[in-house]
Design a protein that fits this description.
The complex is a heterodimer of chains A (about 600) and B (about 160). Chain A has about 600 residues and is an alpha+beta fold. Helix content of chain A is about 45%, strand content about 20%. With about 160 residues, chain B is mostly beta strands. Classes of the chains: A alpha+beta (about 600), B mainly beta (about 160). At the A-B interface, helix 10, strand 17 and strand 18 of A face strand 4 and strand 5 of B.
Chain lengths: ~600, ~160
Amino acid sequence: MDDFELEIKRDFLQEAKDLLQSVEQSFLELERDPTNQELINSIFRFAHSLKGTSRAVGFGQIAELTHSAENLLIEIKNGKIHVTQAIVSILLTFNDKVSEMIEGLVDNLDAVFNVNELVFELERISNNEPPLGGSIAVPSVEAFPVDPAVLMTPPPSDDSKWEEEEAAVIDPQPLTATAPVVDELEVPVPPPAQAAPPAMEKAAPIKKERKDDETLRVSLNRLEKLNDLVGELVILKALVENSLDSMGEHKTSRSLGKLCKEIQDLSISLRMVPVGPTFQKMTRVVRDTSALLEKKVELRVIGEDTEIDKTVLESLGDPLVHIIRNAIDHGVETPQERTAAGKAEAGVVELMAFHEGNFLVIQITDDGKGIDANRLIEKAKKKRIIAESANLTEQQGIELIFHPGFSTKDQVSEVSGRGVGMDVVKTNIEALGGEVKVRSRVGGGSCFRLMLPLTLAIIEGMLIQTGADNYVIPKGQVQEIIKLNEKDITRITGRVPYITLRNEIIPLFYLQGDFGNVKRPEANVAVIVTQGDVTYAVGITDVLRQLQVVVKPATKEMAGQTGVMGTTILGNGKPAIIIDLLNLYMKRVKKEATGLKSAAA
Amino acid sequence: MGTTKNHSSTDASRFMEFSLGGESFAVDLLLVKEVITPPEMTPIPKSAAHVSGLINLRGLVLTVIDARKLLGIQPEKATTENAVIIFDLGERLVGVIVDSIQKVLHVPVENVKPVPDADAATPYMKGIIQFDNKLTMLIDPEILLAGTPSAKHRAA
């Protein structure tokens, strides 16, 4: 295979992957709005071009499979077959199969797949033959009720849609100002304005075509390189500014400063992508999960244009899927239960993204039955996760769901509840420097709030001094800073010393000794770090100042060194190590904590 | 650097020659990204003695290794001749401090001799360059630096 052929094949796979993702949304949209001719046309166009291109680049199996899907779509287009949930299911199966094939081809361009069953099934349905009920699982749930309001909404003309799109692009953070801040969760009342999602809002493939014209694929490596260089530019700028100022060139110096700031902001923003595509994938999760559980669930998505660092977004998919599945499985009741409780038959899961300070908040709210703290506590005691005598508040009870190996559903279900889950979600989010919070009310529903740093590339840090060395620590890990007097330190031979902070006994570690080779470490100041229910103090020489730092990877030679989060370059151009205090001390603290309690008792 | 006489470039290789404690060493020139004067370095705590620290190379943070300490050669006093060779080892860049850079050698392939068996214990020795009535140790920086994790705990 020559280079050219290889290249067009790779290009095709990448493009097809993106297209499949957006067409999946169209399939789901079709389920809600089965008579939308424009939508059907756009899906048909997609299938047609997929067939043509895949054949042209030499992926005959994709072409063959798409050909039979296209046949089915022709029948739908001509009104001979009506769109039902079963039809959408088979189309989604087709979509999954092609995605799977593309993944396989990315790894091995000569991969061969078994498409016969699906081709057969597609052909059979196209010919309007009754289903055999064989290999292809079509969830036997009655079709989702189609909201009459949706059907009656006249599809907006193409022009108005473009305007909407443009507006969204011009205003980069439309949600920052208006996003509701739900700290205390009341009963999650769905905003009435959102009741009928306009069907045309997400004619994804059509929009996509236009967007693609205006974007350019750039490798993340090159962006990172750009960020590095811009960082250097900013350091040099500081020097140049000084000499310009001393020469009396204040105006030039100011212009230079402004320009550099703008370039820096821009280069950072290049890594930011909207959460929309990730949110859209959840539509499918909701559909499949609710169909499987025979529940009716409506997904509402708010704030799709909110932007976040690409690397953060990538690690967000799995936690989101998990929380949403949980919300449907454990939260939302069956239609019968809901009717009995005086709720609407269909449950609502709301997925909302907005900015709050330097964080992106993603809130997953359901209006299901909520989390029964008492049941959780009871269960935790039975499982000996907590002591029989433990006296937990309701909130503490709710937070037991994050405990490893905890599953509340009495029967382990296919969807969620394998006992691994929420604790993994919590760990994953915390690994990103984020936080998970949960609020819930029995009968009222639950709300999971994920707070994520907008970017992993820049963090708020503190420049600290310990001995002769300077380090950066992430500000997020610092609970408070206290002055350390020798008389407040209690030393026990063979143990870590401890201090008493507001009647709480906490271990004290010396950074100089643990992240250095100093035998007799000293400290004037202690940084208090809290993680979960563990608190400890880290003794350092001084806190110099707060600063924003660009996080760079640790060098390969430092790999595996405990407590290193990364490196950065300070304003004076010198490299500095960013210390992860949690990583450095967590294991030791846990060991000490048990010892301290017995020592104090 | 005029050492290329009598040889066409097709059957010759180029090496960078540098000195450590009075001895001559050479590395494949293609692995050298650049040579800089030693900048100020940030020490890495808990690192081995041969790790000098971190430097900022135009926005990239790199580790610098002291080749003299790594090879157990008595370091000479710091002079203005001291240099840091930045090696591009594919997946990473590493800096190595040397006493001084000598020259670029343009050597016919047949002048690069295999290492005598007696030196098999030092796998980073790739060969011996016989040139201008002088022997120069050819070092493979990839092997030399791969076997030297900077953090003590890994060496332990």
